[in-house]
Amino acid sequence: MNNEASTALILGGTGRTGSLLADVLAQRGRITRTAARSGADVRFDWDDPGTHTAALAGVDRLYLVTPTMRVSYADQVGAFLDLAEAAGVRHVTYLSVYNADQAPPGIDIAAVEADLASRHNITHSVLRPSWVMQNFADDHLPVIDGVITAPSAGNTEAFVDAADIAAVAAETLLDPETHAGATYLLTGPRALTFGAVADAIAAVSGRPVDYRDTDQETWINGALAAGVPADYAAMMRWLTGAIIAGNGSTPTGDIEKVTGRPATTFRAFAERDAHAWTAEAK
C-alpha cells in the first residue's frame, strides 16, 4: 500500500474523533477526505446511498464510524463495506466500543467487527475506546447547575481523551500493515469515579461541581424524553450497566503502545478544555 499516494476517507469527519484525526493526518502530510451530512469535504449520509460512491472515489483506506444513536445497522454497514472494497479500499480502521464482544443481542457493534474479520481483500484495525472525557464538556454528561448526574453506583471508568483515540487511529491508517488485525482497548491511565471527575472539573473551573448518582432507568427515561431514539436505550443501559456492576473499563497500555506516549490524564484534559466549564455557567 503506497502511503505517499494514499487517500483516507474519514466518516464522521466533523465529529469528536474524526475531526481530530483529519488534523493529525494533515499534519503528517497525508491526503484526507472528511465525510459527514454537512460541513465536511464531501456529503455522506448513511441513509442516502447516493452519497456513498462519490465519497469512496479514489480512497484506499477508511476510518469507519457507524450510524450514530442507533443499535441496528450491520446490514447497512455491510453494504457500504462491499462498495468500499469494490472501490479499492484496502484498510479499514473501525471505531468500536470497549468490550464490544460483550454487547447484548440486538446491538450490532460486534457484528461489524465480525464482518470486517471475514473480508479477505482488506485489512482492518479495531479501536475499542472507553467513555470519552469529552462527554463531560458537551451535552452528553454536562455540568448543570454545578452538578453531574449519571448512574454509576460509585464505581469507576477509565475515561479516554478523544485526541488519544484520534492519535491511535492515525497510526493505524498511516501504517496499516503493522496494525492489520489488531484490536486496541483505548483508555485513560486511571480508572476514576464520577465524583473524582467532578472534583477535577471543579479544580480547573474554580466553581463547585458535585456528582449526583441516580437510578439508571430514571436517567435513561430522561434521555429519551430529551429526544434520544427509543431503541438506543438498550445501548445506554448496557454502557451504564457495566459501570454500575463494577465492570467499567480498566486502564490498558494500548495508547502508549501504539503512539509511544502515555494516555492523557483527566486532569490534563480538564486543564486543556477548562473553557468548556468557565466560558459560562451551565
Question: Can you characterise this structure?
Answer:
With 282 residues, this protein is an alpha/beta fold. The chain has twelve helices and eleven strands. The strands form three sheets. Strands 3-2-1-4-5-6-9 form a seven-stranded parallel sheet, sandwiched between helices. Strands 7-11 form a two-stranded parallel ribbon. A two-stranded antiparallel ribbon has the order 8-10. The chain is globular and about 55 Å long. The termini are far apart.
Question: What is shown here, in short?
Answer:
With 282 residues, this protein is α/β, with parallel strands linked by helices. The chain contains twelve helices and eleven strands.
- What overall form do the CA principal axes indicate? globular
Strand order of the largest sheet: 3-2-1-4-5-6-9
| Count of helical stretches | 12
Overall average residue pLDDT:
95
Distance between the termini: 48 Å
Sheet-strand content, in percent, reads 15-25%
Question: SSE order in H/E notation?
Answer: EHEEHEHEHEEEHHEEHEHHHHH
- Structure class: alpha/beta
Helix content bin = 25-40%
User: Could you tell me the radius of gyration in angstroms?
Assistant: 19 Å
Low-confidence stretches are: none
Largest sheet: 7 strands, parallel
Quaternary structure: single chain
Please tally the β strands and state the result: 11
